[in-house]
Amino acid sequence: KNQESGSIDAIAKSDIPLAGVNTDSRSNYDLLLATSSLFYLSPIIRLMALFQITFGLGLTFADSYLNGTIIPSSLGVNNIGWISAIIPAVAALSSVVLSFTGTNASGQRGGLWVGCAAFGIVGIMAMAISSEKLKEIGWGICVFYILVGVGRGVFETTNKAALVNFFPGEQATAAFSNMHTWSGLAFGVAFIVFAYIGQIVMGTVLLVFSLASAAGIWRVYIIWHAEHEQDKIRCVWRQGSDINSNVASAEVSCIGSANEFMSMGSTGELPNADIM
User: Fold this and answer.
1) Residue 183 pLDDT > 90, yes or no?
2) Model confidence over 101-119: pLDDT tens digits?
3) What DSSP string runs through 158-219?
4) What is the mean pLDDT of the chain?
5) Span 215-246, pLDDT tens digits
6) Of 10, 53, 80, 242, whose CA is between 20 and 30 Å from 106?
7) Mean pLDDT of 173-191
8) Confidence of residue 51 (pLDDT cuts 50, 70, 90)
9) CB atoms within 10 A of CB 108
10) Higher-confidence residue: 166 or 249?
11) Which phi and psi angles does 245 have, rounded to 5°?
């Protein structure tokens, strides 16, 4: 009994995160406050929300409109499951490639732009091809699902990797909460609204948000690089002024200040505590 109890205690006290289990010790209220505060204070998370919304809109176009209106009339109800499976299959395959290209900031930015392009092309095709023509092309409509699958692959891999880079440590929880909030909200709203608008309008909305997302990502990395330049300046000052400390402690201090600066937004102002 004692040995079993000791083993359970050892596992319970371990720092190994469990899959599907929230290891954040903060209360739900604190997590909600952190989520809303991050969205209010950080221009990066607000700009990244455009991509989350675009993903929600693109997925709704396929799941709600194509599966609900086009596929039953063209390929039949029995094929909805088969054609829907293309999206997660392509997402899984594209994730393998994206995992290699998304190991640095340049690769992540390029990957996010690929996602924007995929959803943008879906929007253009929805505007250019009539619903009657879509029903006539048979399995050729798979192109839509392949593109949405690429976009989903970017959402599940590169998008999440970028958020971890932008918001390390405890801030990652609030960043991912924002991600799911905006993608879920877009999916829910579009699921209702798309039932009352035409295909051309759906394509236009998706294209507009795709372009806005691409511009937002461009701006995100400008802000992020500017913030890191400020971090480097502060780190050099701390290492040069803290004569009695070793290099290791100075590096730890720099990492801490970088995380603090990321939460400040893009004001570019150094805290008074750092310059006194």
Assistant:
1) yes
2) 878 888 999 999 999 999 9
3) HHHHHHHHHS-TTHHHHHHHHHHHHHHHHHHHHHHHTTSS-HHHHHHHHHHHHHHHHHHHHH
4) 81
5) 999 999 999 888 776 666 655 555 555 545 55
6) 53
7) 94
8) very high
9) 24
10) 166
11) -100, 155
* Region label for 268, one of left (φ > 0), alpha (ψ between -120 and 50) or beta (otherwise): left
Q: How far apart are CA 230 and CA 140, in angstroms?
A: 51
Helices (H), 13-85: 28-41, 43-60, 71-74, 80-84
d(CA 267, CA 276): 19
Give percent of the chain above pLDDT 70. Answer: 74
Q: Which residues, 6+ apart, have CB-to-CB distance to 79 below 8 Å? A: 71
pLDDT over threshold 70, residue 271: no
Q: What is the DSSP-derived secondary structure letter of residue 76?
A: -
Surface-to-core class of residue 78, CB atoms within 10 Å of its CB (0-12 exposed, 13-18 middle, 19+ buried) = exposed
Q: How many CB atoms lie within 10 A of CB 229?
A: 11
Residue 30 pLDDT: 79
Distance CA 168, CA 228 (A): 13
| Helix, strand counts (H, E) of the chain | 14, 0
Distance of CA 104 to the CA centre of its chain: 16
CA distance 91 to 267: 37
| Cα 234 to Cα 270: distance, rounded to the nearest angstrom | 8
Burial class (CB in 10 A: 0-12, 13-18, 19+), 203: buried
